[in-house]
């Protein structure tokens, strides 16, 4: 029995140690979620709210919180620093008033560090981003607090099949997402700001 328990511990140990989470706010959480779900080494992305004082925030009432995502990844395949690098280069990091067409504090960018190592890596990536852009990056590094998962209908919104009403009429959810993303100007602005260094543009 001891031999079996030891074997299970050794098998589970490295996998558990390789799993890490990053919490990032980059405007609309649908977009950040869709950006990262296909990245090699990323195990899962969850949309939610964080940064505020209220408990159990909802989409209709999350004052003080920002829309954010929690990314679970295998740090033997992709580093936290690389996650942050990709995030910065897919955001408008010089805009303190929101992101793209989504305005206000709920859509502000932020990196929520879960420990000193994450904070140091995030700050180093921001310094590199400022050097690459020749501009000040306004995205702050904040201490991570509770991450509240958003409602189920927000999860994987970009590939949903429900019919929803948009400004262009009824559309399948996945098509509505594409319409929103283009109309909001996200990819166009990221390409304008970052040029050849832009990530996740469609």
Short description:
Helices cover 37% and strands 24% of the residues. It is built from six helices and ten strands; from the N terminus they run αβαββαβββαββββαα. Helix 3 (80-88) runs parallel beside helix 4.
Using the coordinates above, name the CATH class of the domain at 17-157: Alpha Beta
- Average pLDDT rating: 93
Strand content is 15-25%
**Level-2 CATH architecture of the domain at 17-157:** 2-Layer Sandwich
User: Which fold name is given in CATH as the topology of the domain at 17-157?
Assistant: Peptide Methionine Sulfoxide Reductase, Chain A
Radius of gyration: 18 Å
> How many strand segments?
10
In DSSP terms, counting alpha (H) and pi (I) runs of 4 or more, how many helices?
A: 6
Characterization of the model:
With 202 residues, this protein is an alpha+beta fold. It has a domain at 17-157: Peptide Methionine Sulfoxide Reductase, Chain A. It is 37% helix and 24% strand. It has helices at residues 2-18, 29-37, 80-88, 116-133, 173-184, 186-194; strands spanning 19-26, 42-50, 66-74, 98-99, 102-103, 109-113, 141-143, 148-149, 163-166, 169-172. The protein has a six-stranded mixed sheet. A two-stranded antiparallel ribbon has the order 4-5. A hairpin with a 2-residue loop joins β9 and β10 (169-172).
């Amino acid at each position: 029995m001891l031999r079996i328990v030891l074997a299970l511990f050794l098998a589970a140990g490295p996998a558990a140690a390789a799993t890490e989470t990053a919490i990032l706010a980059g405007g609309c959480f649908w977009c950040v979620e869709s950006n990262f779900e296909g990245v090699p080494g990323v195990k899962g992305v969850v949309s939610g709210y964080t940064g505020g004082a209220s408990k159990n925030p909802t989409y209709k009432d999350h004052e003080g919180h920002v829309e954010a995502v929690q990314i679970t990844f295998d740090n033997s395949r992709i580093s936290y620093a690389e996650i942050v690098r990709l995030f910065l280069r897919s955001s408008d990091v010089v805009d303190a008033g929101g992101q793209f067409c989504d305005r206000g504090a709920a859509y502000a960018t932020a990196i929520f560090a879960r420990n000193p190592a994450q904070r140091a890596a995030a700050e180093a990536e921001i310094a590199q981003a400022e050097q690459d852009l020749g501009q000040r990056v306004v995205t702050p590094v904040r201490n991570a607090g509770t991450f509240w998962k958003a409602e189920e209908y927000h999860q994987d919104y970009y590939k949903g099949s429900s019919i929803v009403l948009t400004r262009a009429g009824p559309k399948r959810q996945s098509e509505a997402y594409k319409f929103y993303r283009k109309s909001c100007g996200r990819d166009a602005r990221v390409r304008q700001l970052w040029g050849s260094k832009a990530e996740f543009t469609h």
